[in-house]
Amino acid sequence: MSQTARPEILLGVTGGIAAYKTADLASRLVKRDYAVTVIMTAAAQKFIGRATFEALTNRPVYTDLFSPQEHFLGEHIGLPRRADLLVIAPTSADFLAKMAHGFADDLLSTTVLAATCPVLLAPSMNVEMWEKPAVQRNLRQVIDDGAEMIAPGEGWLSCRVSGKGRMAEPAEIEAEIVKRLAPTA
User: Fold this and answer.
1) Nearest Cα to 15, choosing from 36, 54, 46?
2) What does the alpha-carbon distance between residue 151 and residue 178 come to, in Å, rounded to a whole number?
3) Helix, strand, coil proportions of the chain in percent (round to 5)?
4) Judging by beta carbons within 10 Å of its beta carbon (0-12, 13-18, 19+), is residue 185 exposed, middle or buried?
5) How does pLDDT run across 27-53, given as a tens digit for each residue?
6) How many helices (H) and strands (E) does the chain have?
7) Of 46, 151, 61, 65, whose CA–CA distance to 103 is shortest?
8) How far is the C-alpha of 68 from the C-alpha of 72, rounded, in Å?
9) Count of beta carbons in the 10 Å neighbourhood of residue 51
10) Which residues make Cβ contacts (< 8 Å) with residue 38, sequence separation at least 6?
11) Looking at the annotation, which residues are catalytic?
12) pLDDT, tens digit, 9 for 90 and up, residues 99-108
């Protein structure tokens, strides 16, 4: 656990309509008295605004690899050093591919590479994307590399079909986080 009394959670938000659910997740985690810091990709900012997460967490939202706000060695170094858990919700197909191949072209992808804390993924995407062999191969690779996943659910998707690909509900993700951060006896 971090040096502070409150567990530190880094919450990565990637591009996808499910990003609106991540606002609910952030609120739930703050209510549990977790310290939550949000990192948003450029694509995530097309779906939900920084101000939403700043208001919910009472912390700055980090988006830029080359404009440090707090850690002058780089946010991708400083933020994961204080984190107890890195959660990426939603985890897009694009971001899974970045993780699987070790790409480091934005703040969140470089943070993942620098993180030594556990990484928990909550994938979300269209059912046809989810079922593609390349996506499943990338998912297997990131799990083999040590990430954990909360599987997406089945149901009505924003693409107007039902199928697998819905990001897990905020309450379900919250429960997984609580389990992982519970003090051990």
Assistant:
1) 46
2) 17
3) 40, 20, 40
4) exposed
5) 999 999 999 999 999 999 999 999 999
6) 8, 8
7) 65
8) 6
9) 9
10) 10, 11, 12, 13, 26, 50, 53, 54, 57, 59, 61, 62
11) 159
12) 999 999 999 9
Q: What are the extents of the domains in the chain?
A: 8-181
Domain 8-181 CATH (choose: 3.30.230.80, 2.40.30.70, 3.40.50.1950, 1.10.3720.10): 3.40.50.1950
Cβ neighbours, 10 Å, residue 101:
11
- Residue from 100, 70, 97 nearest 10 by CA: 70
Q: Which two tokens stand for residue 74?
A: 């780089």
Q: What are phi and psi of 148, to 5 degrees?
A: -115, 160
Non-local (6+) Cβ contacts of 184 within 8 A are: none
3-state class of 150 per DSSP?
A: coil
